[in-house]
Design brief:
The chain has about 140 residues and is mainly α. It has 8 helices and no strands. The mean pLDDT is about 90.
């Protein structure tokens, strides 16, 4: 995932079988990874879903692994889970989406908000002010600060 250190392959790490045997693999998808992370965080699924502004049914389907989510929906979930930049990138990659990139203005604004624990509504306000697409679709009500 993001920030992988490939040093384990240097200095003649042995055969591929040796290398693979020395590593622990976590191949959970975005939904199952997020559900486990929520359970460990002390947050409730309801709190996370409410803060993410996702449709409740759709959010539960994501968390059960029954549905895949778009990149923006995964970012909304990251806000609901109160993830930082690394956690959001992990969630995105597990969901089959590109991690946040410092080469994209919108991604930098989102990362800024995640880093500073700015909520989803305020992040959308910031994105709108920059002329960037918001995360919560137009027409859905957003709670104000």
């Amino acid at each position: 995932m993001v920030g992988v250190d490939w040093d384990f392959l240097k200095d003649g790490a042995g055969t591929l079988d040796d290398v693979l045997a020395s590593l622990a693999f976590d191949e959970r998808g975005a939904g199952l990874w997020a559900a486990d992370r929520i359970a460990a965080s002390g947050l409730t699924r309801g709190e996370v879903i409410r803060r993410s502004r996702l449709n409740q049914t759709f959010a539960y389907q994501i968390l059960s692994g029954a549905r895949r989510a778009s990149r923006d929906k995964l970012i909304q979930l990251a806000f609901g889970m109160e993830l930082g930049i690394e956690g959001c990138c992990e969630l995105l990659e597990r969901g089959g989406a590109n991690a946040l990139s410092s080469r994209h203005r919108r991604d930098v604004a989102i990362a800024y908000c995640l880093d500073r624990k700015i909520d989803l509504a305020a992040c959308d306000d910031l994105l709108w002010g920059l002329g960037e697409p918001t995360l919560v679709p137009e027409g859905q009500t957003r709670p104000r600060r």
